[in-house]
C-alpha cells in the first residue's frame, strides 16, 4: 500500500510569520505529521494576524492580503481566519502549551521524544530564553533533526538582528536592482520573496537530513539563516559585480538582452507582459499583429536596433495592446509563438483555466471559516499527490489527539493542563 | 572527503538554463553524483548568458553557468541518434533520479519520457521542470521571468497605484522554481528509498509562483474569503515611517507605524515632540498633518546618517530594518564573509572568482565545492568507459556526432 513520502515522520513546528511556516507546510504536503506548537498565553507577532483581537474597523481598512477575513469580518476567532496565516496553514496540526513553565517544558520534551524534526525561525534570544538549543534537544532525542532559521545566523554580529523578508533582500542587494528606472528606490514596493526562498530551502535541508538519517541513523543541526538562502537568487547581479565590477541597477521591466515590457490593455488596470528574444519570435510577433507598417521601419531592422529603440518600440506595442483584452492578447501571441502573459490579479488567478485544469486550488473546511479553496503544493507527484488534505489548522485544534494519543496523557491530567492554561483553543479576551 | 547528505545518490540531469540546473546544483553541492547530459556542440544555453570575464563571451567562462553547475560532470549526448539513446538507457540503469527541463513532449520524442524510463527502471524518480507543467491548456506556452511573475506571482499588486506593475530583480522566479522543484524531487526520492516507489514529479514554474508564500497565495485566499482583489497601493495603511528612505550615503528601509511606534521613538532618541502617546493611535498614523510634523523631525535625522549607522541604531531600538546594499557593500560585509555567504571557486578556463556560497549549514554533512563546473563533455570518457565503450568506440561516436 503506497503511503505519502513522509508519512510516519513527525515534525514539531514552532515557526512564525511566513518563512518558517512555509517550510513546514511543504513537509506537511509531503505527508509529515507537522504539529504546530503554539500557546494561548502569548501570541507570536505577525503570524495568526497582527493581534488577537484586532478592531474590525482597523482590519476593514487593510488591503485584502492582511484584512481580507472571510466576508471581511474579523470574527470571534480572528486567529483562525487570517488570510496571511491560512494561506500556508494547510495539512498541519496544532497543539498548545505554555513553555515558560516547568510542566510546559515537560510536555515539550515528551513530544520531542517521539518527534523526528524540530523547526523554528524565531529570533535567537527567544529560543535561548526558552532553553531550546540543539544540545538540549539532543539530550532528549539523540537523532533529532533541528532546523534553526534566524534572519542572519545563530552567531556573530547580526545574530540578534530582526528583519522581515524585504529587509534581508535589501541587505543582499535586491532593493537596488528592482524598481521604476525613472524613480529612486524610495518608490519601491515591498516584496517578500526571501520568505519563499528560506521556507523552500528549509524543506530541502530537512529532506536531505532525513535521507542522511535513513542511511546512517544520525540526526543533525541545520542552521539556515533566511538571508543566506537568498544569495543564490541574486546570482546574476552578484556575478556582474564579481566578474566585471559592474553594479547592476534597475531595468524596470526590461531584460538585459531580450525585448521586454509590461503594456496596458483594454479595461481598468489590465496589463500584458511579453518577451521577444529571437528573430523568429520577432517575426511571429509582427505576423500576430498583422504586419503593421511600423514593424518595417529601419529602426526595427534587427535585434540590436530594436533594442536601441526600445522606447519607440514600446509606444507602438502600447498602441496595439490598448485595443486588446489582456487574456485574449496572451492567447493570440502564444498561439503565434511569442512568449506573452496576462498580468493576473487575484481573481484572474483564482479563475485561471490552466491552474484549475491542474486542480491547483482545492476545497477545504474549517469550523471557523467554512469551506473555501486553497492553493496546494507547488509540485505534482504522480503516485503520492501532495493535495490539500486538511484546511488551515485552528489554534489548539489537535490538543486532544496530541496530548491523549501521542503523549498518552490521562483524562485527569488533561483536565489539569486545561485548568493551568496549557491547553486551549482561544486567546484570552483581554489580550489585545 | 566527508560524508555528505546525498552521498551515493546518482542523478542524470537533462536540464538546462536556470531552474532545473539550480535544482541539480543543490543536489550536487550536498553530495549527489550529477551527470549533466548536454547537447554536443553548444551544450547548455546558460553557457551563453554570462557575465564573462572582461565581457568576452566564451562557452567555458559564463559566470551563471559556472555558478549553476558546480560539482556536476558533463557528458555530451545527441539524443536524436539511436546510439545516443542507447547510451542514455545504459546510464539510466544506475541512477536514482532524472531531472529534465525540456518543453513538454520533447523527452517523449527522444523515447525518454517517464513512461518509457519507468518501463526499464520502475523505482526511478523522474522530475520534469517546465514553465507551465506537463498538462493543462497553457502546457505549450512560452515563458520568461517576467511572464512567470505576471501569471504566477503577485506582479499585479507590485508597484505604484498610478503606474505599471513591476517585476522583481533578474531570475528570481526561476531560482524559486528550481528550489521548489528540489523539494518535490527529494520528497519523491525519500519515498523511493523508503518504499521502493518510483514516480513522476511535474513541476510547473507558474505554480511555484502561485504556490509560494510571496503574497499570491494570501491574495487569492483573501479574494476567496471576501471577494476583493489586492491592488497596488502607495499609501501604507500601517502608518509611518514605512518603506524606503534616502539617507546620507544611499537608502534605508524600515517598518514603523502604530504597531511599532515605541521602537521608532526610542530609535530617534525619544525627542520631546514624539513622547505624547497620541502619536501611536491609528488616527494619528493616518493623519497627513501629523505625518508632516513627523517627517519634519524624521527626514533630517535619516539624511544625516549613513545606512550602516542607521542599521545599528534601528536594530538597537528593535526596529525591523535594513540598508539597501549594493553588491560592493554586500561583498565587503565582514559578517556575510564570516558566514561564507560567498565562495571563491577556481576554474581552469575562467580563473578564480567569487560566487554565491553556502546556502545553509548542516553540521554533519557540509555543503562543499568538490569540483568546479564542467567543461562541455569533459567527462565523456569517465562516464562512458564504465558502460563498456572503448576509447576507439568513443572516437567513432564523436565522428558520428553522437557525443
What features would you describe in this structure?
The complex is a heterodimer of chains A (432) and B (403). Chain A has 432 residues and is of the alpha/beta class. Chain A folds into 2 domains: 10-232 and 360-419, Crotonobetainyl-coa:carnitine coa-transferase, domain 1 (Rossmann fold, 3-Layer(aba) Sandwich); 270-344, formyl-coa transferase, domain 3, CATH 3.30.1540. Helices cover 38% and strands 13% of the residues of chain A. Chain A is built from 20 helices and 12 strands. Chain A has a 6-stranded parallel beta sheet with strand order 3-2-1-4-5-6, sandwiched between helices. In chain A, strands 7-8-9 form a 3-stranded antiparallel beta sheet. In chain A, α1 links the parallel β1 and β2. The longest helix of chain A is centred in the middle third of the chain and has 24 residues, at 193-216. The two termini of chain A are 49 Å apart. The mean pLDDT of chain A is 96. With 403 residues, chain B is of the alpha/beta class. Chain B has 2 domains: 10-213 and 337-399, Crotonobetainyl-coa:carnitine coa-transferase, domain 1 (Rossmann fold), CATH 3.40.50; 242-325, formyl-coa transferase, domain 3. The model of chain B has no long low-confidence stretch (mean pLDDT 95). The interface between A and B is large, with 164 and 148 residues.
Features:
heterodimer; A: 432 residues; alpha/beta; Rossmann fold; formyl-coa transferase, domain 3; 2 domains; six-stranded parallel β-sheet; three-stranded antiparallel β-sheet; 12 strands; 38% helix; elongated; B: 403 residues; 17 helices; 14% strand
